[in-house]
Amino acid sequence: LVVTGSLITIVPLVIAFLCLQKYWQSGLAAGAVKE
């Protein structure tokens, strides 16, 4: 009910967050090397 609604909103956010985290880590590593 409320849980289902929150799951529908949370799951895509978690997936997006995980994808961003991977991208971010590689980006941060590249940025650290440049600096």
UniProtKB/TrEMBL annotation:
Keywords: Membrane, Transmembrane, Transmembrane helix. The chain crosses the membrane at residues 6-24. It comes from the Bacteria. This is Carbohydrate ABC transporter permease.
